[in-house]
From TrEMBL, chain A:
Organism: Rubricoccus marinus
Phylogenetic lineage: Bacteria, Pseudomonadati, Rhodothermota, Rhodothermia, Rhodothermales
UniProt key word Glycosyltransferase: no
Keywords: FAD, Flavoprotein
Protein name as catalogued: FAD/NAD(P)-binding domain-containing protein
Cofactor: FAD
């Protein structure tokens, strides 16, 4: 049995490991045109900042691939023949497979702005984007970063370490408005400003101007910002353009069922490029996150190994770091107040930054829905378990110290006081 | 006029938008480095001329004051940088990424150690600089005859731990764990490794290092050394008893409860230097599987050598057989030369800028080997990983001074239980996702994998933890 995996990101590599574990003798080939081996793309910001080398961002040393007999092919797949079960490679010849996983990830989404193809304008997703950023942004005096997601703030942080002035354009009226309540937005906006980033809320680019290379950005607020370099972080879209004629059902992404199966037999898709035909309750059809990529990769790996398993990612979680503030969420946190949600929240200020913790529960049942933390580390397993079991907000507050994952000698975890009305009122508005 | 930029550099400056936090620190740091440079010049002058001998007081101030005050001023410059993980530019640094400065530093440091151990007379111009402090502390002048070079060395060593300790305190001030731990190593170095032994010398007592014992203090239980201590009076006998208690009782108990970190990154002087002066080089430790294999053979080999060797010395002393005496004598001489001098001293510190700050601790220290075996098999200590939150970025592995591939475990949601971990806690600090936590807890399943955040797949995902790797 020959398993072919297109894409050597976290999704493809996780799938390959699952297959190898269950079938020591199957042939496994992982193909990528991006890089000859697997990189943690989440870490590339640290390469630009000089914290790490590129080699550091390879999660597995060479011996891992030989020990596990996972063949890596550095080539571009130009055509997929799903019925004939072959791939055509740009450099190599045709590659026959018995089961296939498509894990081609994303590409940065551009929105057709005039001038967006000028030199010095780029996203940050692939290894080539890092190369380009090192070449072109390293000497930039002034940069504009468009889009306030995790990649946007990473770009801003990267640029600041080299002394580049950064204007940061955010479409929404507050930072991370779609993901977190207003108070959290305010703290993060303050953190961004503290690092001398020029934050423009309610601002989008209108045109990019320049001759060969970008020189300035005209914004929706009628301001022109000088820029030697522009980072586009307005989201990503599935990298599926090459699949147009492959005869596989696609919409925005490659359509998959819960077992990560596509419309073609023995062809699976997972990670950023996959789109759920029927998304799980409370989950997006496309989940372009590292963590979901890994879980989807494991799920698809089960299918490739001949034991199709439904995608069951469990209680949602995510985390990030905004400059110096660590952020973590387990479960779901509503960004806007609602009568259906009880909100318990507290914060304090330490000499080294703010700390905030927020718990939300269902008004009707009292069951815990999610926990949010800034500047505090939460023990994911404990909170996932509480949410999965539907423990009450009161019990969660009582046991909150058990959920601390802060280092030894840290300040005690903050616990919201429900008896204090000022903290109990939905502190979202 | 939409094509006229509104950009106004002066306005930007007045808003502080051009203000890079990394630049603000530089003025103080430069002042500190200037003082250090002055000390270097004074050191070279003293080495090359008679001036140090003629004006020991002045040169002592220039050299020790320059290094100490300059180091502290340099360190305090970091206060002007926002607190947090600041490894910016480390991989581009000539000093910290094995560039020209790093290689030169390594060669100079190594050379100094070679001179110190094997040609101390070359330091004749420098040794008198220790005189004022030597008279103050131990009531005797500093000469080669009375180990003046070692007094000089101890002074430099303690200064390095102190000044670079301030740097560590500033650099890691956002973490109470590092603050407490750094204060601890500075205390043990300045008081127990420096002030107390010399004050005892002043009182005509044997040198006493309360925090060292066999097998790191390798000759403590050698027959001749025990005889010497017994002969020196009550304090000598007390030292022997304390040394035995330290290795046989205190060490296993504390390691059981807290892991080897109680010693290696809280108390030990070698660890103290590594955690302070060695901190800029911690990421140079080799994380490869090959290095781990070499490490296990070497460190346990040294432990075996000192255990067997000490036993042979005793057999030789008790049996009084000629050839055995010769073997024992050769062993004692060889161990002292190769392990005690070359490995622990020359290579251990000289190679900081080339192989990281823990070369000795990792590959050579028999005490670390004992503690490591206890930690691996009988301790409550582990580094816990936080569910499925690892993004495999590699900061933990890169900044592990012991060359542990921390990520290997973290990305599989598996706790880290490794003999070599000294519990410095930097992996936890540099992790941008809060994945790692140093914990003491029930031993039961301390090394097993935690769920990766998908209950239905736990059993299948845990296959990622299997022996196939």
């Amino acid at each position: 049995m020959h398993i072919a995996i297109v894409g050597n990101g976290i999704t493809g590599v996780t799938a390959s490991r699952v297959v190898r574990r269950r079938h020591p003798d199957w042939r496994i080939t992982v193909i990528s045109d991006e890089a000859p081996t697997h990189y943690a793309r989440t870490a590339w910001m640290y390469v630009y900042m000089g914290h790490l080398t590129r080699e550091h961002t390879q999660p597995y040393a060479e011996h891992f691939w030989t020990d596990n007999r996972i063949e890596r092919v550095h080539d571009r797949v130009t055509h997929l023949d799903a019925r004939g079960k072959t791939l055509r490679l740009q450099k190599g010849g045709p590659l026959a497979w018995d089961r296939l996983l498509l894990a081609t990830g994303s590409i940065p989404a551009f929105y057709g702005w005039p001038g967006q193809d000028l030199a010095g304008i780029q996203g940050l997703y692939h290894l080539q984007d890092l190369d380009r950023m090192e070449r072109e942004a390293g000497s930039a005096k002034r940069a504009v970063v468009v889009g306030g997601g995790l990649i946007g703030v990473e770009m801003a942080e990267m640029l600041r370490t080299r002394g580049t002035h950064v204007s940061f354009l955010i479409r929404e009226g507050r930072y991370m408005a779609h993901a977190m309540p207003k108070r959290e937005s305010r703290l993060l906006e303050h953190e961004i400003a503290r690092h001398h980033v020029d934050l423009h809320l309610r601002t989008e680019p209108v045109t990019f101007q320049g001759k060969d290379r970008v020189q300035s950005v005209r914004t929706s607020t009628d301001v022109t910002l000088m820029a030697d370099w522009v980072g586009i972080a307005t989201g990503v879209r599935p990298n599926i353009d090459w699949l147009k004629d492959a005869g596989i059902d696609t919409a925005r992404g490659i359509l998959v069922d819960r077992q990560m199966r596509t419309s073609a037999p023995d062809v699976f898709a997972a990670g950023d490029c996959a789109e759920a035909r029927e998304p799980l309750a409370g989950r997006a059809a496309i989940e372009p996150l590292w963590y979901t990529g890994r879980i989807q990769g494991a799920t698809a790996g089960m299918g490739l190994a001949g034991s199709p398993t439904p995608y069951a990612p469990g209680v949602f979680f995510n985390s990030a770091k905004f400059f110096d503030i660590e952020w973590q969420v387990v479960g779901r946190i509503a960004p806007e107040p609602s009568p259906e949600i009880v909100d318990a929240y507290t914060e304090d200020e330490t000499p080294h930054g703010p700390r905030l913790i927020r718990l939300q529960a269902d008004t009707a049942s009292g069951a815990l829905l999610g926990v949010h933390a800034l500047g505090i580390r939460l023990r994911q397993s404990v909170i996932s378990d509480w949410i999965a079991r539907g423990v009450s907000l009161d019990d969660a507050l009582r046991d909150l110290p058990l959920a601390s994952f802060d280092p030894e000698f840290s300040r005690a975890i903050l616990v919201p006081d429900l008896s204090r009305q000022s903290q109990r009122i939905a502190n979202l508005g | 006029m939409s094509d006229i930029p509104i950009y106004n550099a002066d306005a930007d400056r007045s808003l502080g938008l051009f203000d890079n936090p990394a630049w603000r620190a530089k003025s103080l740091e430069k002042a500190g480095l200037a003082l250090v440079a002055l000390a270097v010049v004074a050191t070279v002058v003293a080495l090359a001329s008679d001036l140090g001998r003629q004006r020991p007081g002045l040169f002592a101030w220039l050299v020790f004051g320059g290094f100490g005050v300059g180091g502290v001023v340099f360190a305090l410059g970091g206060l002007r940088r926002a607190s947090g993980v600041r490894n910016d530019g480390k991989m581009f640094s000539s000093n910290q990424a094995r560039g020209a400065v790093g290689w030169i530093s390594g060669l100079v440091l190594t050379g100094l150690y070679v001179v110190l151990y094997f040609a101390p007379e070359a330091l004749a111009g420098l040794i008198p600089l220790g005189d004022p402090l030597s008279r103050l502390l131990r009531d005797q002048p500093a000469t080669v005859a009375n180990g003046g070079q070692w007094f000089l060395y101890s002074t430099f060593y303690t200064l390095a731990v102190g000044a670079m300790g301030v740097r560590a305190l500033v650099r890691y001030r956002h973490s109470r764990y590092h603050v407490v731990r750094t204060l601890s190593v500075v205390f043990f170095q300045t008081i127990l490794a420096f002030a107390l032994p010399y004050l005892l010398m002043r009182l005509q007592q044997p040198e006493l290092f309360l925090h060292y014992t066999w097998p790191l203090d390798y000759d403590l239980f050698f027959p001749w050394k025990m005889e010497e201590l017994r002969a020196s009076g009550q304090l000598g006998v007390a030292m022997l008893i304390w040394g035995a208690i330290l290795i046989a009782v205190v060490t296993p108990i504390l390691t059981f409860y807290f892991g080897k970190r109680w010693y290696c990154s809280w108390v030990c002087g070698c660890g103290g230097l590594a955690e302070t002066a060695g901190d800029p080089y911690r990421h140079l430790s080799d994380t490869s599987l090959g290095a781990w294999k070499v490490e296990r053979w070497m460190v346990h080999g040294v432990l075996a050598a000192i255990v067997v060797g000490t036993a042979v010395l005793w057999v030789a002393a008790l049996l009084d057989v000629g050839w055995l005496d010769a073997v024992a004598g050769t062993f004692s001489w060889l161990y002292g030369l190769i392990i005690g001098s070359i490995f622990a001293g020359v290579v251990g510190v000289g190679f900081y800028p080339l192989m990281g700050s823990r070369v000795w601790c990792r590959f050579g220290c028999p005490m670390a080997a004992v503690l490591g075996l206890q930690q691996r098999f009988f301790s409550r200590f582990r580094i816990t990983t936080n569910g499925g939150q690892c993004i495999s970025c590699g900061n933990c592995s890169a900044y592990c001074e012991m060359g542990i591939d921390v990520r290997w475990y973290a990305q599989r949601g598996q706790n880290i239980v490794r003999a070599s971990c000294v519990g410095c806690g930097i992996c936890s600090t540099v992790c941008p996702r809060g994945v790692l936590k140093l914990e003491n807890g029930p031993r039961g399943d301390r090394a097993t994998a935690a769920p990766l955040g998908a209950p239905a797949l736990i059993s299948e995902l845990s296959i990622l933890d299997g022996a196939m790797d």
